[in-house]
Structures are given as structure tokens and as C-alpha cells.
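Sequence, C-alpha cells reproduced for reference:
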Amino acid sequence: MIAQVEHLLKRLIGLEAESVGRLVIERAIRQRMQAQGISAQADYWQHVNGSTTEQQALVEAVVVPETWFFRYPESFVALVELALKRKAVLCGSRPLRLLSLPCSSGEEPYSIVMALLDAGFAPASFQVEALDVSARVLELARLGHYGRNSFRGQDLSFCERYFDATASGFQLQARVRDRVKLRCGNLMDSHVLGGEAPFDFIFCRNLLIYFDRPTQHAVLDGLQRLLHDGGTFFVGPAEASLLTQRGMQALKTPLTFAFQRALAAPAFKAPAQWIAPAPVRPVRPSPASRVRAERPVVPAAPLDEAASALARIVALADAGHSAEALQGCERYLLEHGPSVDAFYWMGLLNDMAGQGDVAQGYYRKALYLEPEHVESLVHLAALLAARGDHGGAKRLQQRVNRASPSGVKRDER
């Protein structure tokens, strides 16, 4: 039955099950069975397969938002600079149009609004559209009430300007909420954005990584048709290579993960079969060592650019410079595309910073690319065990034993 539900989720929202992990889907199924008072998996499958309401509830249980205000702050600096230039070109002929999807509980589209207001844009000079498949998180966005987990990073001065403190958190002011049009929609529905005028800026970050390659290209085909000539596309660090493959040019500003159409770019043609390049394998720390590498690595031959970048990340982590190491990982993903090792290090560094949910997501991304990646399995098992999921930890440890039965770490060179 699990495999049937996985196929259903792929059909409904394009979700590739391995990108989130089977445990997430199994937990969602258990939650929905309990909520419906159903004890047999076969009965639940019959129920969910015939009920669009239950299908939406299952999607809600699977989709777990992980976001915060001004995530990737460099991208918002770039947005303001580009928006000012775009405004000058338009000469007041129309408002700027911006799209955020998936918008989750609203932190991203509201960050866009705050950035533009801070830059002096009049409220009527722009409009932000925001789309998400989850009605539950959209209701949270409409309420605009946030706890401390939504406020991360060093510069939180925006909180004083745009939020009112309450007994249970922070209430976003109406002047920000009113500039965002929230709606529920599924990108797998070809009509969901049909009839929309083109957008000047599209934010679609950390969504494509959950799709298989054909679905990624299908979604990008639709979104690129919605982008104005001269418009800008913002993605997550792991998705940057997809835009490069489609003939788009990255902005030269580091850590923005922003792309524009290249002049005279050739039409993109998806290859008949995409074969991922073999991942670059740097020396990794022992699984027993949570952050620090065991010893400096002296390569036998000069490293290529990608390997050198990963070696610098290892060196920064070994020296205790976690923030710089994380930035190095994000820069690596932007320049070189998805990488088992970059995802693993992002998981490890977030794990050490106490960001367990974020770390778990990156470990799973590493395992999506390489299912038997021993270090990611070990650390994810430890994280699950610490959170009380001993069954999940045990299953991961069994995978470790199968991948490395002698206990010798693989491919450490």
C-alpha cells in the first residue's frame, strides 16, 4: 500500500518519494488513518483513492514547511536592486508583478513585501502573488501570526518595523499582508496559473528538488512562460544547475541563486535520458566525529575546481567556522549543482547548530542522490534516535550495516 500512496502523491503533486524519505510518507499515512478511524492499510487505500478531500488531507500531512523570514538574505538585496531598475524602465506604466511559490506559511512573500517597502516602493507600485498546495499553511499565512522559529539570522530589525508583539508571538501588520494575494493551487494542474499576466520576478525555491527530472522540466517550462523578458527567476541552491541547463544566466552576485534569460539563448531541449555526473567525493569526517575532520588532506594530484571548493568547506568546518562553511556549501551548489557531499555537510553543520529539522532535510537530500551514503545514514539515524524515533533509527542503522558490513568507511580517499 505504501508504494501505491507514493504513486498517488507523485500524480497529485509531483512528489518523488525518495526526496522526502519513505518514513515521512509512512508517518503521514498513520496520521490520516488515525484521524479517519481506519485500522487496515487496505481500507485506507480504498478510502484515499476515492476521496479528493482525503487526498488533500494526505498532502497536508506530507507537506511540512521549513521556512523563515529573509531566508537567503542576499537574494532580497538583489531583488531590491533589480526592482529599482525595472521600475525605472516601466516609468509607472504598471505595478511590478512578483510570484512566490510554494509560499508555505507566508514568510517568503511577506519578506519580499518588507524588502520593497524598506527600499521606498509605494504599496501600490507592486503586487505579490503567492501560491501553495496546502490550504493549512495558507491559513497560517493569512493569519500572519508567527513564533520565534520564523525569525532567524543576525539582522532582525525588520521585526520592529513590521510586527507587533503579542503574548504568543508576533503579529504581522496589515500593510504587509495586504500586498500579498494568497491562493491555494497545485502546479501539477496546468490551469492553476493560466491566464496570468507575466511576472517580473518569480521565487520558486526548494521545490524542484522534490520532483523527478521530467517533472522539473515540465514545471520550469510553465514558469518560464510566465516570466517577463528581462525578468528574474530565484531558486534554491540545489536547483541552480537546472536553470543553467536551460540557457539562463546566473547573476554574478554570490548566494543570490537568481537567473535571467541569456541573450539569444538557444531553445532548451530536454535530453532523452539524463545521466547524473558522478559526485565528487572529498575526505569526510568519521561518523563518530560530528563536525571536525580527522586530519588535513594532502591531495596526490591538483584538485579540480569542484573538489577544491569541497576541500575548503571541510577546512572551514574543521576550523570551527560553521557559518562560512555553510556559505561555501550554498556557493558550491550554485556553481556545481546538486552534490551528495554538499548536502551532507549542510546537514552536519545545521545538526551541530541545533537545527534538527533543517539537518534532517539535508541528510535526506544526500540520501536521495546516494541511498547508501554511510555518513548521512549514521547521522540521520542518530538524529532520529535523539528525537525518540527508535524504529526509524534502527532501520537506518540496518542500511548502514548493509552498505558497510565490515564497519570500514567507504570511499574515503
In short: Residues 73-261 form a domain with the Rossmann fold fold (CATH 3.40.50.150). The beta strands are 96-100, 126-132, 145-146, 163-166, 169-172, 180-184, 199-203, 227-234, 248-250, 258-261.
